[in-house]
Every structure is written in structure tokens, then in C-alpha cells.
Design brief:
The chain has three helices and four strands. By secondary structure, the protein is an alpha+beta fold. The structure holds zinc ion (2 copies). One zinc ion (ZN) binds next to helix 3.
């Protein structure tokens, strides 16, 4: 299936400004399987992204990795009754097969 794209004028629902959804972006959206038109102009998208990043950074908590003892940051309030891992150990932990059932005594 081939589709041709043409620049399209959209209105940002955030600031109400008109912006151009370029043919190139439309193609990118289609490749990504995104069916909806962008709701925000590139400026507002950038701002929203920065705000999310800032909110995430503000939410980071310093922890000590339960596995390797390295200082790390996690994007949630660490619980004292649960081990916390640095990103490396978290990845290793997540990719590890589930522990085998304890052998019968
Ligand atoms: Zn906008
Ligand atoms: Zn670690």
C-alpha cells in the first residue's frame, strides 16, 4: 500500500496555534502505526516532554542497590520491605529466569 502525504494544517489543542503536520511526519506516524493526528504543536510537545522529564526527575529517589551496593536512583518511593536495584541489577534481575521451586527437603 502506498500513500502520498501532503503537509496538513492542524490546530494545537494546548495553545490553539495552527501548526503544520508535515508530510514527513505523517509518514513517520504511519510507519509507527500511529493512527491519530498529533494534538499539539511541536512547541507544546517539547514543553510537555520537558515537563514529564522534570516530573520524573523530581520523583527520583536515592537508593542503595540491594544487589551490588551502588548508589542509584529509582522513579518511585522505595519500600523498606522490598529490595531495590540499580538499573543494571534491575535489568539483570528482570531478565533472569524465575527462581526454581524449592526442592523438597
Ligand atoms: Zn501548541
Ligand atoms: Zn546494582
Amino acid at each position: 500500500m502506498t500513500m502520498t502525504f501532503a503537509d496538513k494544517s492542524l490546530t494545537c489543542r494546548e495553545c490553539g496555534n495552527a501548526f503544520v503536520w508535515t508530510a514527513g511526519e505523517q509518514e513517520f506516524y504511519q510507519q509507527k502505526g500511529l493512527l491519530h493526528e498529533p494534538q499539539r504543536c511541536p512547541d507544546c510537545r517539547k514543553k510537555a516532554k520537558a515537563a514529564r522529564a522534570a516530573a520524573r526527575a523530581a520523583n527520583m529517589h536515592d537508593v542503595i542497590c540491594s544487589n551490588c551496593g551502588k548508589a542509584a536512583q529509582v522513579p518511585f518511593e522505595p519500600r523498606t520491605d522490598r529490595p531495590v536495584y540499580c538499573s543494571e541489577c534491575f535489568e539483570a534481575h528482570r531478565n533472569a529466569p524465575p527462581p526454581a521451586a524449592a526442592p523438597p527437603a
